[in-house]
């Protein structure tokens, strides 16, 4: 009886841990990949200004900053809702009820506003640049444009190669980590695109990019059953999607930064 209780308790702890640990969108490797790709597409003028503002730190290095400050809820708790947008699968952002505390779209918009304002302090510009790098990465993780009722897939329990996880965490980290590639390797192995293809990806607004990601979100929700053990087949099908989203995030981040700093 005691053994059975311990087994159940262990399973419960794994389940809770999976939810708690899956808040960091893409995980460090994904965010750094997006930052690295963006660096490769900056204009010389933008790159110089950004290097000065970040005091030599790279976009890849600062890309995880917005997750790191989550540990200080008292000081930075007001930015928590900037990491996601909750919306039904059949809805468009313009038609949804907005979070009064802000969301990913309003967060990105505010970052851009601060960075373009000549009266903003250097400290504010540095802070909101770090936030922008992260949030544009978030924008391209399908489960951060997920449903409110399941917390963007956090409560949809699945297994990843026999270990407890959830749908959010699978897309956040599990798929990427299984390939065991550094962010530099992922960035350097991004798809070779023509100038026309890059321009096409960079077209549109932040809301347009949100809708682009949301199309993928719909498919992700239908890709699993609760409790399913996801293995190599799932990686085979969806790792190319993850790579494409990381690349889109990097290219679109570069577009925003070039517009701001060039």
UniProtKB/TrEMBL annotation:
Family matches, as Pfam families: S1-P1_nuclease
Gene3D superfamilies listed in its UniProt record: P1 Nuclease
UniProt keyword list: Disulfide bond, Endonuclease, Glycoprotein, Hydrolase, Metal-binding, Nuclease, Signal
Signal peptide extent: 1-20
By its UniProt entry, which InterPro entries does this protein fall under? PLipase_C/P1_nuclease_dom_sf (IPR008947), S1/P1nuclease (IPR003154)
KW Transcription (keyword) present: no
Top-rank taxon of the source lineage equals Bacteria
> What is this protein identified as?
S1/P1 nuclease
């Amino acid at each position: 009886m005691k053994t059975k209780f311990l087994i159940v308790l262990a399973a419960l702890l794994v389940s809770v841990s999976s939810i708690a640990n899956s808040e960091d969108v893409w995980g460090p490797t994904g965010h750094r990949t997006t930052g690295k790709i963006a660096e490769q597409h900056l204009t010389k003028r933008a790159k110089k200004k950004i290097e000065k503002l970040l005091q030599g730190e790279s976009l890849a290095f600062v890309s995880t900053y917005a997750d790191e400050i989550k540990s200080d809820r008292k000081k930075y708790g007001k930015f928590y809702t900037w990491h996601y947008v909750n919306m039904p699968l059949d809805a468009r952002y313009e038609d949804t009820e907005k979070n009064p505390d802000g969301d990913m779209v309003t967060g990105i918009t505010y970052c851009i506003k601060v960075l373009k304002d000549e009266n903003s302090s250097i400290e504010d510009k540095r802070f909101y640049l770090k936030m922008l790098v992260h949030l544009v990465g978030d924008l391209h993780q399908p489960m951060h444009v997920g449903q409110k009722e399941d917390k963007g897939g956090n409560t949809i329990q699945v297994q990843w190669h026999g270990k407890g996880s959830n749908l959010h965490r699978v897309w956040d980290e599990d798929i990427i980590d299984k390939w065991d590639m550094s962010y530099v390797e992922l960035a350097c192995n991004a798809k070779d695109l023509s100038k026309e293809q890059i321009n096409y990806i960079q077209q549109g607004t932040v809301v347009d990019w949100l809708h682009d990601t949301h199309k993928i979100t719909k498919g992700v929700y239908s890709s699993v059953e609760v409790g399913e053990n996801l293995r190599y087949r799932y990686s085979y099908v969806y790792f190319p999607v993850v790579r494409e989203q990381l690349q889109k995030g990097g290219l679109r981040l570069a577009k925003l930064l070039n517009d701001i700093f060039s």
